[in-house]
């Protein structure tokens, strides 16, 4: 019996058992088929063709990236309905919100990473993973071209391509240096610069901080030199930059000062921020709390300050107000600002006619605009929320059932639910105006209830609603929710084809298959060092101080992706409490 | 009051308080004097000269290296008697016996390192540490020239020199490639190659093993390619190579196979050994136990096999017996054989007239031969034990108190203790001959007790003793004991000058100041994977199997240098038992 006939027999026998069948396919694709491979190349091809025919109903999904969005999609996708292949230059998922802790050794790099293969393994190994980078999306042919980043030794240049029926782009963003000269060469980063270096960069920052101290205590240096080595500059006053500054301050004050007492008075930390305040995306109470805390801690905050260039020994900055240009000597610069586009995404934006956009625009169902079968989520995408004023006539027409040219309260009530789902800005607008009920929108300018409105009245009632539109922040929370949302849509595709669950189409007939993506904000944290943190929690609740740090600990421990990382992170924190941070240059 | 006059006043005030005084000196050397530095360079120089005069009684000790020998010396040295400065390219001590565990992630790199500054901090911060490499020992001028390995940004090329009264060389050895072509470029190492990379190399091996698996599962490769990527070759069948092979086997079988099931039948591990057996410095029962275990595990052992060269894809080996030359394709080669000389040591051997030696020869008190004030210990040194036959006439003369030309048993008894201390080979010889008492040596060839012996009889009685001379192995145990021994000698120098504690000088008058170094062997382990280990314990006790692995765990946990690393190592082991090893490529 030849191998191919064995496989054919086995596959027909196993036809009714999808799990066993899939296992067989896997074995075939790996070791099984490899035996055949050495036997006869063409024979194997025929076998896989045969097998493919049996599987023709299963659509192929290719996922690019294993960050928050990609991983969250992979966790829930039903492999009984799809053939899923994942391409990512790193074979692990990193819990990025703890990266600033890694830079100072409060948490180990190992503790925040989880192998992708472990995550997809939960799905019985039926998702294929390739450690490679997607270098080109060929949308016309439904193909992605990939390049293994393990270039040495690899036959065939390490290039391969994958076909897809659906493509999920979740490659994230990279750092944006705004073409500032010298930044790439002389700065450290807390955001992807090169492929797969986020965690490595955090580790490098740690080693470099210790290097600065070791350099500063060498014999025969002038005080000026020592001061330069011990001047740490952070560019960017966002949550990551602020958290790193706070972590660094704690690392130095709690640990390094004790073992380098001879230079303790020479250390300086400066945070350079182009805006007027640090943490300016937070509530201003938090922003000023952070600024005051930093002032007490001796962390200098230079606001309104733009970086013109960075050399290996200094950086030159320009004050926005006066226009003066300074040169600041430094030992280490960490660049923590700006979100840039990955080359593969930039190339794809052009293919789908979104030429000069920084990120991919998708509709509310996360499908890339200008494409039928490509989805984008996380930091590389933004949702282009439909404006209600674009559809105002259709909405009016759909709601005005009796074609009377006026809309009664009852008629409006009929479509309100669909409107609220389709245009989330309506709810935000009601909230901002403290209105209790949607029908309150239809009151006349004096605030009296009206029986009905005509099209002009309807237009003016909703005219300000779109002002509430804002794009979602580039955070882990958004990416994770989008991944989970998209996998749910994929899993219910068949079911929702027949029984749509989305709102009615105002510009067409019937209903949308799915409800559009809706982001649920669970709040955000800004750790400020010294066991203090600030948080904006749902319901506009602001919390600051030591208790908030404990809330931070418990939230971050609970959000860990596996019990292993949870145990490791908690034991890292415990170790830090007992023994402090390690200062070995490793 | 100028700064210098303040310092002079303060120093005279503090004269009687060495600890306070030393603290002041430290402050002066770092921040204090730096203020003066920017004020006036020459002023500062004068101040330090003044201070130096006050301190002239304290001798300067410079220690090179922070491995087992250096660290163990630093732990115990009395800083009240010496000014100690340490120069090492790495600012941490690494628990090297656990390096093979780091290569597979059984133990984290962080868990086996302890900052040197923490270790010397216990001594009230009175030992200065410089992260730099000693590039040249200038024995004629009692100076060492150092180069900071943090070259970038450093004023004055990062070079500085230190004066010493005593120099302690404990820089260890580096790998020896025996000039085999391609080894440096294409192999990984478990022993220092470049400065300060031991631990980093172990981490790289781990990432590289995972790379091999990621490469092997990429699409579009031939089975041959996949097999090549998954062929792991270890060169060297010593304890380190064997332990690495065992760890790698466990890592693959217990962890990687589960997440890369498609290539599980393609993995191969080969151990290449030039000798006839692996672990040939162990008892042969252990050696054959290890070979049998490896055979059961599927680890191929190629004995009698010399490596001719290594390329990025294959290595060529020659069978010693038949002379055939093979080419073996590989995915990864770990080179774990040979001990080479560090350049700074090679240069110094020439200065002291030990031209073509591989390591520095010292006398039994660890002082380098041909030098008065330089000591060498650990892997860079070997003790040149004095042969008893060289001194046989002097011994006879010293023992023969009545100058009768014959030695009675009583006369011999008088010098026996001194002989046993001065010539440790005597004790080893007695043991090897199963003799109970030293005087048994003087029996006649028929085994009858003699009343006295003449010089010829004495010579022939001791003629075979020197055959028991052997040099100590290059292990952590030896290095650590030497460090502790030397610091004890340094601490008792003054006391032993007046009351020598060593044996009598046979070739001179009086006594040696100190007892010579005596190595105490506590046994050695060879972990063999699968929770099994072999051990040679004191008293020629051989132990093999699972219980020995548990002994290994407890010994290695107890030998940790700090409670922090102890906790970390034990929690790493626990984590591995519960969750397995991590396969993230980081």
TrEMBL record, chains A, B:
Top-rank lineage group of the source organism: Eukaryota
Q: Which cofactor does it need?
A: FAD
Q: Does the keyword Cell membrane apply?
A: no
Q: Does Lyase show up as a keyword for this record?
A: no
Among SUPFAM superfamilies, the record links this protein to: EF-hand, FAD/NAD(P)-binding domain
Q: What is this protein called?
A: NADH:ubiquinone reductase (non-electrogenic)
Q: How does it sit in the membrane?
A: Peripheral membrane protein
The record's listing under InterPro entries reads: EF-hand-dom_pair, EF_Hand_1_Ca_BS, EF_hand_dom, FAD/NAD-bd_sf, FAD/NAD-binding_dom, NDH-2, NDH2-like_C
Ranges for domain EF-hand come to 387-422
Indicate the principal place this protein occupies in or around the cell: mitochondrion
Q: Where in the cell is it found?
A: Mitochondrion inner membrane; Peroxisome
GN (gene name): LOC115727142
- Tell me its EC number(s), please: 1.6.5.9
Q: Which organism is it from?
A: Rhodamnia argentea
- Record key words, sorted: Calcium, FAD, Flavoprotein, Membrane, Mitochondrion, Mitochondrion inner membrane, NAD, Oxidoreductase, Peroxisome, Transit peptide
Which reactions is this enzyme annotated as catalysing?
A: a ubiquinone + NADH + H(+) = a ubiquinol + NAD(+); a quinone + NADH + H(+) = a quinol + NAD(+)
Family the entry assigns:
Belongs to the NADH dehydrogenase family.
């Amino acid at each position: 019996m030849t191998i191919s006939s064995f496989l054919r027999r086995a596959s027909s026998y196993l036809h009714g058992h999808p799990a066993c069948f899939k296992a067989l396919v896997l074995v075939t694709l790996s070791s099984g088929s490899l035996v055949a491979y050495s036997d006869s190349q063409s024979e194997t091809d025929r076998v896989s063709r045969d097998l493919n025919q049996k599987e023709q109903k299963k659509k192929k999904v290719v996922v690019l990236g294993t960050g928050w969005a990609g991983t969250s999609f992979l966790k829930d996708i039903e492999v009984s309905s799809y053939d899923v292949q994942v391409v990512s230059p790193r074979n692990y998922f990193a819990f990025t919100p703890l990266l600033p802790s890694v830079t100072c050794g409060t948490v180990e790099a190992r503790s925040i990473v989880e192998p992708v293969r472990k995550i997809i393994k939960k799905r019985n190994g039926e998702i294929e993973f390739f450690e490679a980078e997607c270098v080109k999306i060929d949308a016309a042919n439904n193909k992605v071209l990939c390049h293994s980043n393990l270039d040495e030794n690899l036959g065939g240049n390490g290039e391969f391509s994958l076909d897809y029926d659906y493509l999920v782009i979740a490659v994230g963003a990279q750092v944006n240096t705004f073409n500032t000269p010298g930044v790439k060469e002389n700065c450290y980063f807390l955001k992807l610069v090169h492929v797969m270096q986020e965690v490595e960069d955090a580790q490098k920052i740690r080693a470099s901080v210790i290097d600065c101290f070791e350099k500063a205590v060498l014999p025969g240096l002038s005080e000026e030199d020592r001061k330069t080595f011990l001047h740490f500059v952070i560019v960017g006053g966002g949550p990551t930059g602020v958290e790193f500054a706070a972590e660094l301050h704690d690392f130095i004050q709690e640990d390094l000062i004790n073992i380098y007492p001879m230079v303790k008075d020479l250390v300086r930390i400066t945070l350079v921020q182009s805006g007027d305040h640090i943490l300016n995306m937070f509530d201003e109470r938090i922003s000023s709390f952070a600024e005051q805390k930093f002032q007490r801690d001796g962390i200098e905050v230079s606001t309104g300050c733009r970086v013109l260039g960075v050399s290996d020994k200094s950086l030159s900055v320009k004050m926005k107000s006066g226009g003066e240009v300074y040169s600041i000597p430094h030992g280490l610069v960490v660049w923590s600002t700006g979100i840039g586009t990955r080359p593969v995404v930039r190339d794809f934006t052009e293919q789908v006619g979104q030429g000069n956009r920084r990120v991919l625009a998708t509709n509310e169902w996360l499908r890339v605009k200008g494409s039928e079968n490509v989805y984008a989520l996380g930091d590389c995408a933004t949702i282009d929320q439909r404006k209600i004023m674009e559809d105002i006539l259709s909405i009016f027409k759909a709601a005005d059932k009796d074609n009377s040219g006026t809309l009664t309260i009852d008629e409006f009530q009929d479509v309100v639910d669909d409107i609220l789902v389709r245009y989330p800005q309506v709810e935000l607008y009601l909230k901002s105006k403290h209105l209790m009920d949607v029908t309150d929108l239809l009151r006349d300018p004096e605030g009296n209830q009206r029986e009905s409105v005509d099209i002009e009245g309807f237009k003016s009632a909703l005219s300000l609603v779109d002002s509430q539109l804002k794009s979602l922040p580039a955070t882990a929370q958004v990416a994770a929710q989008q991944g989970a949302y998209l996998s749910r849509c994929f899993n219910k595709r068949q079911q929702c084809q027949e029984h749509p669950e989305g709102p009615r189409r105002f510009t067409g007939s019937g209903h949308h298959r799915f409800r559009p993506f809706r982001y649920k904000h669970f709040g955000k944290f800004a750790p400020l060092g010294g066991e203090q943190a600030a948080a904006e929690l749902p319901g506009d609740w602001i919390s600051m101080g030591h208790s908030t740090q404990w809330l931070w600990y418990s939230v971050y421990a609970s959000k860990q992706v596996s019990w292993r990382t949870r145990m490791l992170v908690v034991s890292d924190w415990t170790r830090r409490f007992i023994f402090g941070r390690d200062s070995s240059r490793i």
